[in-house]
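Hi Q.,

Before the meeting this afternoon, I wanted you to have the IPE prediction in hand. No need to reply - just skim if you have a minute. The sequence and ligand are here:
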Amino acid sequence: MQNADQTGELNENIPQHIAIIMDGNGRWAQKRHLPRIAGHKEGMNTVKKITMSANDLGVKVLTLYAFSTENWKRPSGEVSFLMHLPGDFFDTFVPDLIKANVRVNVMGYVDRLPDYTQKAVREAIADTAQCTGMVLNFALNYGGRAEIVTAVQNIATQVAKNELDPAKITDRTVDEALMTSGLAPYSDPDLLIRTSGEQRISNFLLWQIAYSELVFTDQLWPDFSDAELKKCVYQYQQRNRRFGGLK
Ligand code: IPE
Ligand code: IPE
Ligand code: MG
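Predicted structure with the ligand bound:
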């Protein structure tokens, strides 16, 4: 199993967009003989810590995978707890976000969330709309394949209406049809981190990670720390990003 073990001084090359698959809340709780939701609650505190750490590092966009389009398969009690978390999180954390000049963004099928979750999300977005620093981008009811399907539907509709020539469809057309388009010029993550030792993507940002650097750490999300984030960034800084060319 890969660990972000090796570490050292960070240089100036801070990834501008970091995306994190926050995994391992349930296992964290189970290890302590607690219900899984205790892990989600503790994970929320990690979100607060890591948001501030990323902001301090000078990251421009921090994308956090909070709930996938497949997570509805979980027991209804757990889903319900997760749906109440945004309200709890933003109620206590929005003042700190404003102080830190962090703007909240949410990508995903928000209109399919319970009304109270939608309300919490909309208020946090509105309350931080004037912030000009880091974007804290939550992927909530997000799935990479669903996102691509929606994008294809939108592009096909433009073609059907004779507004778009299929021969003129480029990477950019697709970029602009995805949920990350509003994050430009930082739409694609430079660094993707997954906690909990799982080495898979689980339907996260499929198009956008084409050239992201991937770092997997065994730490469970509630244990993930500022020091571990820095180790992941250190690993990123040791990589040689070639984008298919030579260096
Ligand atoms: C990640 O932790 C949080 C969500 C997916 C909502 P998990 O709940 O997946 O925790 P594990 O993987 O079961 O330990
Ligand atoms: C991915 O974690 C989704 C989030 C972190 C929100 P999962 O725990 O749902 O992924 P799998 O089921 O292990 O692939
Ligand atoms: Mg999991």
